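$ fold --in a.seq
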Amino acid sequence: MPYITYVTPEYYRVTHQGSIIPEEEQEKALRQASRHIDSLTYNRIMGRGFSSLTEFQQEVIREVVCKQADFEYENADQIETILSSYSINGVSAQFGSSWNIFTDKGIAMMRDTYALLSQTGLCCRLAR
């Protein structure tokens, strides 16, 4: 059974009014963002089935997938680097958990986007 993303490219363009990701790359970016959301929610969406979630949960997940796809597309170079920090001639750069970036399971996400995803109740390690 093929993996079905939580957001279609049409939803991204029309409902979310996304314009950051080029049309030919949207499906791939939305698939990756959906898989990252699955990891952060301990595959609870896949386990329950997207259609069995509440309308609120579905809406939040769609919004988070769109935001995450945009974030990952815009920051692909920094996310894909294996370095967490470096310094050259007194100028330093660092990537990892910071005041506005959340990282877990190798996934980087804006903290406010993770806070939004957490509203679904699917991110708690203790939840069933």
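$ fold --in b.seq
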Amino acid sequence: MKLRILLAWACAMAPLAGYAQVPSFKVAVQGELKPAACTMQVSEQGSFNYGKLKLKDLNKDTYTLLPVLERELRISCEARTKVALTASDPNAGLVPFKDPIVFFGGHGKSWSSSRQYGLRNEAGRAIGSWALMLVPGFTVDGQATDSIYSGDNGKSWDPSVGNFFHDDGSLETWGLPGLKEPAFGSVFQGTMRVQVALDRIAQLGVSTEVPFSGGAVLTLVYL
């Protein structure tokens, strides 16, 4: 994000009696304000790999929740600044469930199907969904924070339970305890958590190994 400033004045000297008119000229003052550059890193290169699963371990009549996996998220900035995160889902719409699902043991509350991330097989067929959470407890420059989110592009902020929804324009960030506003910081650090829900065996219809995949694009926003 860059903010450009251009100020220009047009100065015309008024003619004095007995003198010829002086041509006008312009003076331009230019500058550029830009946020301190930040980098974002997720441990294990941002990969959440469940390895090989056995069909016999999946539920026949309902979805199966796989174990929760966690990775460390770290945002490092050249100078103290305010940042937030937003997410998009390249597999949006590939969710086979109609009813909400309670992920993360209920700590992040229930997820409607429109807020779940899509999960697909190699043929592009929806075979499940997954959820993404920024676990409350992030630190900013070593200080404890509260998780907060904005649904109006940063005009106002409310407490967050950490559910990180996709493609709804919401922003997730962190504020100092008791303050519902983004905190200035150079290092933002905490835990990302994911959990997968696989469709029931009857819907999967598999007899051989079937790789599945999902993903999300995290975007860093300077505030």
